[in-house]
Amino acid sequence: MDFEVDADTRAIGEAVLRFVEREVLPLEDEHRAVLGSERTLFQPDGRFVPEVLALRRRIRMRSAELGYYNLFGAEALGGAGLGAQAMAHIQEVLNHRFGPGRPLIQTVVLPSPFTNGLSPVLRHLEPTVFARYREGIASGDKTLCFGLSEPDAGSDVFAMKTRAVRDGDHWVLNGTKQWITNSPYADHAMVFALTDPEAAARHQGGVTGFFVDTRAPGFSVPRLINTMGHLGGDTGVVILDGVRVPDDHRLGAVGRGLAVAMDGVNAGRIGMAATCLGLARWALDQALEYAKVRKTQGVPIAEHQAIQFMLADSAMDIYAAKSMIQNCAWRIDRGEAATAQVSMVKAFCTEMLGRVMDRSIQVHGAMGLTNELRIEEGWRFARVMRIPDGTAEIQRRTIARQLLGGRADL
């Protein structure tokens, strides 16, 4: 196995970093009065203020214009088709350089497969239908959301209650989706619903995906769900009240929606793991620099063994995470089955980030708790990331089942 990042991928990563430094950071400085506090970042209902939405759209479209926004989109969809190893490297370097809490960078410069860009789920949309929407999505002008989770159906997907009933050339959708990222802002939704409740009860399919216009009558996002003390965000509750969707807007075959959904989930987990790796490296950098300059008892705290152990433990966590991501991405790019490995990477990297951020806070002492250093923001992000796209416990269940079924090649 050779995990050396090739020169082309390194060059792309460096170009993305230059783009952010040249065009995004100046916008951050120019609009600091809005971006600098959540009191000005969000409206009273928790949604981004219009100025921030306009900035995010501007950056998405500029990133797309320069060829970065769709780096990881499949070539069949019009993307650059870069693989999992390239995604892992570029997400890592982006988050390592700029750290957490950057609403004009994270999931904007490079989209999440769940919310923006040429999501792998779109491969299952009828080609002539996709062609009508492709330009808006690929250009960054239009965004997406991924509607799978429900109030009583998170990890237990077959417990979903949202129904889709055939009515001539349309389907009629009714139900509630919850924890749906980007739903307050999305132009299109990838929604999954029961079409055969009996098959779903037997865990034998029965779920179908649909590509839904969020402006359709009956589609609404009545409220946001604020998490970890934030005053707003991008996660909402979606209500589907008699939403009509043409049959040619199905995502894949009737009853095969969960296989379709997993295309987005797996891609999202690798990207999430690489993001966590980059942020962990950023946090360790902050701790290292502070430990060299902060003094107690007449010496830098870097000379105290307790501090050294925390730095070393973080370095070991990061090295292990990077090794796991590289191996997993290598398997995916080779076309190998990697269900267990993707679950291991998602669980380990999200938990690893929490540990590294916590140690960085400890190294900084009271300063680590302040908003200005953004380390506490990274810690909050880590706590959140452990839950979405399958909790760490669900990942462990998947790993165990793969082991017990003899399907986990370690």
TrEMBL record:
<dbReference type="InterPro" id="IPR036250">
    <property type="entry name" value="AcylCo_DH-like_C"/>
</dbReference>
<dbReference type="InterPro" id="IPR006089">
    <property type="entry name" value="Acyl-CoA_DH_CS"/>
</dbReference>
<dbReference type="InterPro" id="IPR046373">
    <property type="entry name" value="Acyl-CoA_Oxase/DH_mid-dom_sf"/>
</dbReference>
<keyword id="KW-0560">Oxidoreductase</keyword>
<dbReference type="InterPro" id="IPR006091">
    <property type="entry name" value="Acyl-CoA_Oxase/DH_mid-dom"/>
</dbReference>
<dbReference type="InterPro" id="IPR050741">
    <property type="entry name" value="Acyl-CoA_dehydrogenase"/>
</dbReference>
<dbReference type="Pfam" id="PF00441">
    <property type="entry name" value="Acyl-CoA_dh_1"/>
</dbReference>
<dbReference type="GO" id="GO:0050660">
    <property type="term" value="F:flavin adenine dinucleotide binding"/>
</dbReference>
<keyword id="KW-0274">FAD</keyword>
<dbReference type="GO" id="GO:0033539">
    <property type="term" value="P:fatty acid beta-oxidation using acyl-CoA dehydrogenase"/>
</dbReference>
<dbReference type="GO" id="GO:0005737">
    <property type="term" value="C:cytoplasm"/>
</dbReference>
<feature type="domain" description="Acyl-CoA dehydrogenase/oxidase C-terminal">
    <location>
        <begin position="255"/>
        <end position="404"/>
    </location>
</feature>
<protein>
    <recommendedName>
        <fullName>Medium-chain specific acyl-CoA dehydrogenase, mitochondrial</fullName>
    </recommendedName>
</protein>
<feature type="domain" description="Acyl-CoA oxidase/dehydrogenase middle">
    <location>
        <begin position="145"/>
        <end position="243"/>
    </location>
</feature>
<dbReference type="InterPro" id="IPR009100">
    <property type="entry name" value="AcylCoA_DH/oxidase_NM_dom_sf"/>
</dbReference>
<comment type="similarity">
    <text>Belongs to the acyl-CoA dehydrogenase family.</text>
</comment>
<dbReference type="GO" id="GO:0003995">
    <property type="term" value="F:acyl-CoA dehydrogenase activity"/>
</dbReference>
<dbReference type="Pfam" id="PF02770">
    <property type="entry name" value="Acyl-CoA_dh_M"/>
</dbReference>
<dbReference type="InterPro" id="IPR009075">
    <property type="entry name" value="AcylCo_DH/oxidase_C"/>
</dbReference>
<keyword id="KW-0285">Flavoprotein</keyword>
<dbReference type="InterPro" id="IPR037069">
    <property type="entry name" value="AcylCoA_DH/ox_N_sf"/>
</dbReference>
